[in-house]
Amino acid sequence: MDNRATIHNPQRLCDNGTNFVHPALNSCGNEEACGLPTGNASTMWTIGKEFPPFVQARNLSREKLHTMTGMEAQHNETEAAGKPAAKKTTRTRKPRASKQATFIAEAPAMPIAIKEPGQFGRVNILNCQPSVEDDVYAARVEIGEQFTVSAQVFMEGRTKVGATAVLKNPRGRIMARVPMTVENAGLDLYTAKLQAGEHSTLNPWDAEFAEVKKQLGNWRVAIEGWEDTYGAWLHDARIKVDVLSDVENTLTSGSELLTRWASTRDANLNAEQRKTLREAAKSMMDTSLDAKSRLTFADNADIEALHETNPLRDGLTSSGDHVFHVERPKSSFSAWYQFFPRSEGAYLDDNGKKVQGNFHTAVSGLERAKAEGFNIVYLPPIFPIGVTNRKGPDGALNAGPDDPGSPFGIGSELGGHDTVDPLLGTMDDFKAFCQRAHELNLEVALDFALQCSPDHPWVKEHPNWFRTKPDGSIAYAENPPKKYQDIYPIDFDNDLEGIEREVERIMNLWIDAGVTIFRVDNPHTKPVRFWQDVIAAVTKKHPEVLFLAEAFTRPAMVRALSYAGFTQSHCYFPWRNTKPQLEEFLQETNGKGGYYQHNTFWPTTPDILTAYVRDGGVAAHAIRAVLAALGSPSWGIYNGYELIENRQRADAEEQSSNEKFEIKVRDWSAANRIGISKLLTSLNEIRSKHAATTSYHNLTILPSANENIIAFARQTEGRFTKDGRTDTLIVVVNLDPYNEQQSSIHVDAKALGLPTEHPYRVKDQLTGREYDWSWDNFVSLAPWADVAHVFHVETGEQPLD
């Protein structure tokens, strides 16, 4: 049996020998009171390892539609599992109040009990989204990130329904019940925006991070649907009273309905609210008043407000729980800065020979990243570099005696992946480097390329880890027409578990030194199952560690790597340059795919220099920076971008004099004159100030009349911002790095909750200039002036006290 096969079909996965155990369903949110385990059920698999927490097992009972009370559902699940109900209740810590909680109440008894999986309740609930591979894997969000859930909720005939999204924390406690709104009446589609936990910028080494950790893990969302008895009655009552048809029966029914509503425990009414309903019910029966006056007692703003927040919910039905894995800060919202330590502080000596930098001089790279507003520094491999078949400048086959080689040709007689290159310093030097990064509130990400030079110790110690040719020689890496004579690829078919144990050991070593993120080079050339094993083992011991996949490959493989545990992914953003390409890619990145694959936008890397950036000069660099920083919550810059390093190799889409193969001596004083460094700083300041930039689930493309101008909005509701104000950004970018472009930008003010009857004020976050905008707006952008607008909508909302 090949347990490494990557299978997206859940049934195939089960048939291949993976045994799943799904957490017990929980409708009332009080596991302890019901005698159920608190926390998450484990999921076991074929070779005795645990899935990472974001891989969720699927059980048929998972999809039941409940029409029992929450208590009944839990006790039935417990009884079915052969577990006795608990006799004691343990008190738990009261959670912090959620700003989005609308009402929290115990579910009433239901008229129809569901006895078999797949049976319908009194209200029908279908197509709960997001769902990743039919809920085999959990959707993923960063703590505090705004996200959207949806479902089709309906009943027979023209019966009105209502719907609520119920959010539960990892301990099963209900944190919020949020009313859902009709997105598409014809499709019976209801949606709601949620937020799991509170947004945080804390780092894993901060003392306060312990409080953040308590909010991480598997949260759950259930959709509740019910018959909207009041809404249906009011609709008919208005018609009948208006034409004086069957008035007494209609008003009597309404009075009885309000009386029943006031007594319903599920509505969670306070004494004043119950009094309001009862007095209205009584007044409706005053026959000395005309029919229209009597109706107003049930048809007014006070009753409507209660209907919105504390409704009467007849025929209440609940979907099964859908799991969301809530991950730590920077799992989605992050700003990366890459540099080579050996080039930081490098200089030419009196003979014109390059003298490389080390971890001491590389502190300058940390300080530059901090000054420009980045929060993650990413280093290439820092291990000893092999000598055999070492590559020269730009990958030349013959290296000179002073050529440093590629850091991706890993391993020499000095050591392998667990050793610091002595030319950079010692392990203590690296630890001091990480400590300085932490003092600057920077995380350190380390490139982990699982490959070896011919001189790597593994070649002698583990010859079965490599694939040999018929003549007994080891095959070097190839990706035709490219050949990598200085690199041996790993063969995973002979000792998978041995390789896994060694990689886990090495990663733990670097984590102990201060690394909190691994950027994995070409993970798509290794078995997905291997990464699933390794990431599960590493994050079990170090749950704060994140993984970025550098996988430029087919979509199915990138998706599988995300399921396997990679938190973020490189993507094809560098090659999306036209308006249609960008609009499609922005929607893909910030759409349903954002629940499992967090694309990180990089304009350039040591491996990527597109013709657009090569030819477009400063303007092209500015354009791509704006699109990267505001088109995705996660973005990155490779150093030298500030200096417009855009000379391209004739035979490859990457820089000439490539830093992968040589040490670069840079004059950073030119950065201020060029201006890109200042722009990068401004973009990161905008991102840090505006909650709208933090989510993969809040981007809307705005129509523009010019194919060279792209516009989009990002919006986070006031319920999810620190000051209680809705945060709306409108980004407009000229995609032409050579010419001035003009266009009209259409904004659907109603859809974005903006004023529809009069203009509203917008302020450009890059220049400080202000404008009045409304439905259709004129813009003019030129590469020699402003390549973009980043407008903040000044709505005039008052902050929360």
TrEMBL record:
Active site, UniProt feature: 521 (nucleophile), 550 (proton donor)
Keyword Glycosyltransferase set for record: yes
GO terms classed as biological process: alpha-glucan biosynthetic process
Enzyme class (EC, first level): transferase
Keyword field: Carbohydrate metabolism, Glycosyltransferase, Transferase
Superkingdom of the source species: Bacteria
Molecular function terms, GO-annotated: hexosyltransferase activity; hydrolase activity, hydrolyzing O-glycosyl compounds
Segments of skewed composition (Basic residues): 85-97
Gene3D superfamilies per the UniProt record, alphabetical: Glycosidases (3.20.20.80), Golgi alpha-mannosidase II (2.60.40.1180), Immunoglobulins (2.60.40.10), Phosphotransferase system, lactose/cellobiose-type IIA subunit (1.20.58.80)
Signal peptide (UniProt feature, chain positions): none
Glycosyl hydrolase family 13 catalytic domain span: 338-666
SMART domains hit by this protein: Aamy
UniProt binding sites for alpha-maltose 1-phosphate: 391, 451, 486, 522, 660-661
E.C. numbers: 2.4.99.16
Marked site (Transition state stabilizer) residue numbers: 607
Name of a matching Pfam family: GlgE_dom_N_S
Quaternary structure note: Homodimer.
Similarity annotation: Belongs to the glycosyl hydrolase 13 family. GlgE subfamily.
Protein name: Alpha-1,4-glucan:maltose-1-phosphate maltosyltransferase
Organism the protein comes from: Bifidobacterium animalis subsp. lactis (strain AD011)
